[in-house]
Amino acid sequence: MTSKIDRFLSEQTLKTPYLVVDKDIVRRNYRAFRDRLPLAEIFYAVKANPAPEILNLLHEEGASFDAASLPEIEMCLATGATPDRIAYGNVIKKSADIAQAYAHGVRLYAFDSQVELAKLAAEAPKSKVFCRISVEGAGADWPLSRKFGCDLDMAVDLMATAQDCGLNPHGISFHVGSQQRNLEQWDLAIGRAALVFSDLRGRGIELKMLNIGGGVPVKYRGNGVPDVAQATDSIMSALTRHFGNDLPAIATEPGRIICADAGVLETEVVLISQKSYDDATRWVYLDVGKFSGLAETMDEAIRYPISTDYDGSPEGPVVLAGPTCDGADILYENSDYKLPLELKTGDRVRLLNTGAYTTTYASVGFNGIAPLKSYYI
Amino acid sequence: MTSKIDRFLSEQTLKTPYLVVDKDIVRRNYRAFRDRLPLAEIFYAVKANPAPEILNLLHEEGASFDAASLPEIEMCLATGATPDRIAYGNVIKKSADIAQAYAHGVRLYAFDSQVELAKLAAEAPKSKVFCRISVEGAGADWPLSRKFGCDLDMAVDLMATAQDCGLNPHGISFHVGSQQRNLEQWDLAIGRAALVFSDLRGRGIELKMLNIGGGVPVKYRGNGVPDVAQATDSIMSALTRHFGNDLPAIATEPGRIICADAGVLETEVVLISQKSYDDATRWVYLDVGKFSGLAETMDEAIRYPISTDYDGSPEGPVVLAGPTCDGADILYENSDYKLPLELKTGDRVRLLNTGAYTTTYASVGFNGIAPLKSYYI
Question: Could you tell me which of A237, B292, B319, B325 has the fewest CB atoms within 10 Å of its CB?
Fold first, then answer.
């Protein structure tokens, strides 16, 4: 909670639910991250929060952009960002979308497979390409699974092929998984990337760039989350350990760490109930749920801190759920959430650190419920 | 696949992904269900697919409507349905929404808690109310969890309270869980409801209605799914077993069974790739995923049948995933999906039985991807 958000919430009588984002915090986060990784080109992960207000602010700050799709590229261009500051970072792209991105002037593309490379050779000739390698990602709260990246052997061959088919074999990327708490994962990943650099050097190809992805964790609820300084220190040590003095250009794709703690989601308690006389568990139903912005509560992966007007007063255990008729729309049943005993139906409840990965996840209208509104102040 | 959908798909050159729904199948499903349960008033579960084309068609057929929210009530009214044919079936409602529904003329409300009852007494005086009891729901592919319903003792007390506070204690409801394969669950639930009826009779309150919810399963992929005739036969037997000749009015809330098999989702293969030389698994990435309509693939709960232009030719195992940069956007990794070996990037793939619980689950724009388009023919 910032004083600006506090004032906004107290002065407004808007219908809940809605997200308020303090742009000053976004700016502060961006600058802090940039200052901690001065060597890196920061490609903001647009998918974390693509609000024009945030993209414009980051454009003013000099950020580059990591776009997941053609529409995201076009949102970045709309800020005035030049195409040389935009990477098309999704390894799954339609040929037509690559062609359109190329027509817009984008010349930096991710891939992790033979077929994608062939599309890039056809639709984005001479562009810089970077191959995403797979990493384990253990320790991430929102892991990236096996969906992305290829093995090192394959990456080496693909980069050699990239050169053969008229593309510019620019670099290697990885992603340790979103909300990664285990800082050693960057060391492992950077070590793997360094192997690809040296293998390719042996084949006469000098890579220029290492993209270390995102994954620096935000402090949600609970402990054991390293702070940005610890994370970036680990990353810098690992870079030095594996690349020595011969550092490539470094790119990074922060999203969550830029926006999450700038946002507060204001909601209302629609109902508090018990299921039986034998079970005192309070079920607290909010007017926002898994299908209206809180998709990252899937498997209770991301656990938002919660604030009410009764903070500090006696608390008791609750199950938190959303407002739809869907049984899967439970936010937290197994994460030991407690809320004040005084809390009652109609009260406001604030979900903190909700500035990233909320608004765009909201459904178009499941159960007739409108998408999450948001305000950037 | 119906011949109408086949023709539509072959004649159109629309950009994928999109859903096509054959309204004739919706009508056929509605009539078949009505004919199998002639005693029941059918409240279509609007949330399954609230497209105006479907609501209008079901209105013409004489259906009533189960609405999950005020906007869904207003969609039903827009078809010309009179408010006496609309139930506000969500047990989690804001007071202001109840007041507005009441102003619209709605006089039938679900609840399962003391607090909700108090809201109804204040905002919807003299309305018919029905209390949702909890049932186990074992055997459902998309279970309703503990989120809804209260214990029998509490239900009895709440219905007595309803009478005391000027509401009309109309009936009892339950829901055995969506896509329920175990037909005995209806017997268990109807037996529990009958206990509430007789307890309340002992307290001088004669309930009028039993709402047996939804849950009749659709045949997706795999076997062991009873058909509609088997399900409705089981339901009718259970009603007779527990209520004898003294049947209350029966209400039911089908959604999935009305719409699912009327829809085909046309998608395109964006990429087929392997992750390493050692692992021959083909990753097939479609242009639709968990965040653009296929939310029910969560935990691989709902497994859609898939059709391609190569059906019948040799197949091999695949992992199916969506187009976003999100590691959770995997559709099927553990459900032994196989697709033709000839399938290649750019080919069309059709997900069958996708007419329910798809369009409205789509996100407003995660990764910059537009919501799922749909056509009703």
Answer: A237
